[in-house]
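Below: protein 1.
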Amino acid sequence: METGGTFSRRLEAWLADDDAPKTLGALGEVFAEKAFAVTILMLMVLPAVPLPTGGITHVFEGITVVLAAQLVLGRRTLWLPRRWQERELGPVMSDKALPFVVARVQWFERHSRRRGAALLSQLWFRRLLGVVLIAFAAGAALAPPFSGLDTFPAMGAVGVTLGMILEDVVVLAIGVVIGVGGIALIVTIGAAIMAALRDLF
């Protein structure tokens, strides 16, 4: 597998390499220098796209919270239990969700540039991003079932991690706006549902 080139090309090469295990642990090793951002991006891709998931997204959102908490604690290297490291991404992720994302990442790579890279390397800012990613993962997990609203905070997490990977605070800011808007929508609709239920009972 090639080790140079853009992020999307490296990801495509990894997906196309039949000898490379498609696990979270292998993903972290391939993109070691940005393991946190890349792993969280891959975990939140599935909740961010309109595909049937069979409930696996809640597992990915839970793992995302654990990883983002490590950012908050200031860790520079990613840690996962062996069981999670060996977890296969699955055919829905590797055959459908990731190729879908690669095309979108390529668009961002063409239109983005390094902006605010020094800020992204600051420990306090990485900790702040960890808090943001925890909020987005929790928002996606707590969205009303079958509403499709979980896609918005998940898309926000994807945008934030993509901004970290491309070292572009503008892309990161777009992710924050989408995620915050999604959580606001979930809270608003959730409150309306609760009010309707109180009126019924």
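Below: protein 2.
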Amino acid sequence: MASTLERCKKFRARRVLKILRERLTVRDEDFAAVLVARETRDPFRILVVTILSQSCTDIAAMRAYKALDQQVGIIPSKLRKANSRAIEQAIRVAGLHRQKSKAIKSLSQIICDRYSGNINQIIDLPFESAREKLQELPKVGPKTADVLLSILGLPTISVDTHVERVSKRLELTGSRSKYEQIRSDLMHLFNKKEYPIIPLLFMAHGRNYCKARRPLCPTCPVENWCHYSMKST
């Protein structure tokens, strides 16, 4: 039986979600992986744009993705054979282009050699096995794996810096929680059907109100449900 504290936390989480749904607008163009998923359900393409979006804006990631598709082609067999400099040049706008080029080329080779060029051989595994296998790929950590799996309709929540900050300030997770604990806490507080929208809303909230250095607490739509705001006033 749930404790009073746990019931209160769930109630607060539901109120926060309701308010954020009403007050925030989530646009596809703000999230590169979501935008690509609207165009194709190809998990390899979604994975590539998610890697490109690491440490850069989603706008830059989309520009790099489109350039890579036009100049090389986002297909494992083509990327495997492509000249590294060609990949670097195509994705330069996304930053860290040498590291990302190396990762994308290595990723493509692994998909071709181990999985016959078909990443669905990983995606079709049982959920935990798929998540584990994805994280064995270059530049694919838990967040990137969860972004891909969530977009494909599997039950998980990705946690970026915005999601982590918002979750901790709202005390939906512990102040010292790491990635897996934050993910687990959020999955416990919300319903499975809500998993895909949670990171998008929390990211939007983190960008617009719950900023890292100067959060806009006085105008925050969930100020009345935020312990961080109460402490800072």
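The CA atoms of residues 37 and 129 lie 22 Å apart.
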